[in-house]
Design goal:
2 copies of one chain form a homodimer. Chain A is mainly α. Helices cover 67% and strands 6% of the residues of chain A. Chain A contains 22 helices and 6 strands. The longest helix of chain A is centred in the last third of the chain and has 31 residues, at 352-382. The radius of gyration of chain A is 29 Å and the shape is globular. The interface between A and B is large, with 113 and 113 residues.
């Protein structure tokens, strides 16, 4: 429904742009939510984007739109915007989004912008840029409300009214000691509920869930999700409060990471870019298929080795699809369970053998069942126990091996800190294809010649 | 890191349980966060769970633990807990979690509980149970702060202090007219920042993002994510405010839906149950593989039809793996893009032909490229233009068809309101396997006999 709204606005905007109906366009831009404008801008051609961006007055809306654009579109749009105007827009954006945006710009442009920014802001941004993009430090905002334990509720509310108007989401109030070390947390809600002269010490919660600045963002997201909190404080190695990660960023991380995993497992890159052209999409997908192609060519040479067997028993070829298919599907099941289990924190890398053991057990049971089914089909259609047994054993070994390979690769990748999602898809499937075909012909050659 | 902590606690708890060290156990239970206890309980054997649950004093912690357990574990644990105690625990849980929990219990137990609950609570719960589980109504809480537009900031804060102590997350203040219809929204933060005698009318935001009670929970999650809000108000068909959906529930939905999609696509059920035994896991995965097995058997009969061709040109068999593999992988790519794109709201069902058209275009280009590669291998290894051409065309048609089938099935399923994630995996792969093999032998039979 909401996407429909953006679509209607996009179409209206394009029509009005063609007619040059500027006042009407301004009115629409004014009334539309920044998040919807983000979608509208992603759907417009570059030329229209520039015109519409020029018509926008609200720098906050401009900021949201810039954050939502792809890299190429962003650079094209900013080309003609004076640096002073960019600085004006950035001034109205949350600090973490500013750091993100600046990190995506070319070196010389970002340096120029940082030079023209107010000193405090540019120091903060440079501080944030120091952290790795995908860590707590990279996604935190340095704006938080921190007070000392002896502050009363009234004083805290007053300081909130005076100083912290620009704080992104001041729902928690952090309590620090004289060295800036995090010692407690309270909430805006508690502040208005307790008698106003109560010191925070008396009602603050000292069991604070916090994260280290170098913690991976996926882990941060898991913690926020597990403890149902709206923001998690970020501390440095001496437990000094350096920022907070807010729940809206956590939602984006969870969505992105899930999409990334899914796309990687299918071998279609790691970013879902809506505006991707056919050419772009082809370029990203072509190399992933190469592994599978090489695997297929390899399988072809393996079958070549067994040419004599195949010439004598042509019908062996008829079972290649089912043996490959069953192995491939079990392998996909196993690797999916492992990749998603790791991502959801359901098990750890050190559970390696327990996880693989369970998968192989499942693979063997499934292999026995389907080996019997497919073997019976072979036996009753060609009336040979040797063929039936060969096919049964091939299905069994292919499925067991697939469960092993499908669970082992992602676990091993994770152990060596390589993204396990990359390990599945083409990689697992290809090795299973080769192994299945080889084992099948090996077994059949042996049994049929007895 | 956090999971490690739960693991350490689990091991300590089991050791202390064996030694019967009750006072020590109580102390640990006291100090551990409810969310961590949830993980600990999931890892304990049923007997230990009962003992530990009996040692817990805090009903709020008990509530979190119950919410986190699987259905079987939940029922086993509640067996020996008196209904009055269950009511006491439910009293400390957020209303939406209570409704969830009661919905999972057997009819007679839930009726008994509702009877013993305070009248207001049971009416609210029954109200929530009316809505479908996976809609805004099913996940909302009926506790929200609603005031009239003429209320001043001070009055609003006072009413908050008096009445709304139990409200789950009172970060927004909703403004309603005399009929309870939603007209505006303000935040706790604005209340403390404006002069205290300002009526809310003067600073409330009238452009409220809201959702209908019957909206699907995935759509609700997308809206909360898009607008970066902490809670979204839920309204009935006359725009009357009936509840709110909070961001912590949205996070759970996003995680669950992503996991569900991934697992469904791989054909391993739709729930990631950590405690699933080998037997359970096998039971869930076995039927999914049946489609693939039937497909394989079907492919076997197709190849049987072409037995004459195969006997004359045995080497044709050697290319079955690469043709099937390439088709299967492109099909997986296409269906993944479509399923995830629909889930992320990147495109709609009515974009059917645009999406399929783009996928097929990509499939054809990739097919030409890999057709040439694999065809060359065939040509140079067997020195025949007819074989080379057959293999090339087979790869091309298999990959193009795979892109078509892989994108069309999920789009069609979505159009008929069937979950598109179910459509991919075994279903798409199997049809591609059959089509690929058939086309390959059809083309080869025609060309090689020329």
């Amino acid at each position: 429904m909401q996407s429909d709204r953006a679509k209607v606005i996009t179409e209206t905007a394009r029509r009005l742009l063609r007619r040059g109906a500027t006042p009407h366009l301004r009115k629409i831009l004014d009334k539309t939510h920044a998040a919807d404008l983000g979608v509208v801008f992603r759907h417009l051609p570059p030329g229209d984007r520039k015109v519409l961006f020029g018509l926008l007055d609200d720098p906050a809306k401009k900021g949201t739109i810039l954050s939502d654009l792809d890299d190429d579109a962003l650079l094209a749009l900013l080309e003609e915007v004076p640096v002073a105007d960019i600085v004006g827009i950035l001034d109205r954006m949350p600090t973490d989004d500013v750091a993100d945006l600046i990190g995506r710009l070319p070196e010389d442009l970002s340096r120029e912008i940082l030079k023209k920014m107010p000193r405090k802001g540019s120091l903060e941004i440079e501080g944030l840029l120091r952290y790795d993009d995908e860590t707590a430090g990279g996604i935190m905002v340095p704006d938080f409300v921190a007070v000392r334990a002896e502050t009363t509720a009234r004083e805290a509310i007053e300081s909130l009214q005076k100083e912290h108007i620009n704080v992104e989401m001041p729902f928690y109030l952090y309590v620090v000691d004289e060295n800036g070390r995090l010692v407690g947390v309270s909430s805006l809600r508690q502040l208005v509920v307790v008698p106003s002269d109560t010191p925070i010490r008396n009602f603050m919660n000292t069991d604070v869930v916090s994260v280290r600045a170098d913690m991976d963002q996926e882990e941060v997201a898991r913690i926020v999700a597990r403890y149902d909190i709206l923001a998690v404080p970020v501390v440095d190695e001496s437990n000094r409060l350096v920022g907070i990660v807010t729940v809206d960023d956590v939602i984006d991380i969870i969505r992105e990471e899930a999409t990334e995993d899914i796309l990687k497992m299918a071998g279609v890159g790691d970013e879902f870019v809506e505006t991707q052209s056919v050419a772009n999409s082809t370029r990203i997908r072509l190399p992933w298929l190469f592994a599978s192609c090489m695997g297929g060519v390899f399988a072809f040479f393996i079958i070549g080795v067994f040419e004599n067997t195949l010439e004598k028993f042509t019908y062996l070829a008829a079972f290649i699809p089912v043996i490959m298919g069953m192995g491939g599907n079990v392998g996909t099941q196993s690797s999916t369970i492992v990749v998603r289990g790791l991502a959801m924190g359901r098990f750890q890398v050190r559970d390696l053998w327990r996880v693989i053991g369970k998968e192989v057990a499942v693979g063997v049971i499934l292999g026995c069942f389907y080996g019997l089914v497919v073997g019976s089909v072979a036996h009753f259609n060609y009336g040979g126990w040797a063929l039936g047994l060969s096919v049964s054993l091939a299905v069994l070994s292919s499925m067991s091996l697939a469960a092993f390979v499908g669970s082992m690769f992602p676990m091993l990748f994770a152990r060596f800190n390589i993204d396990p999602a990359v390990a599945t898809g083409p990689f697992v499937t290809t090795s299973i294809d080769i192994l299945s075909v080889f084992l099948y012909f090996q077994i059949a050659t042996f049994l049929l010649r007895l």
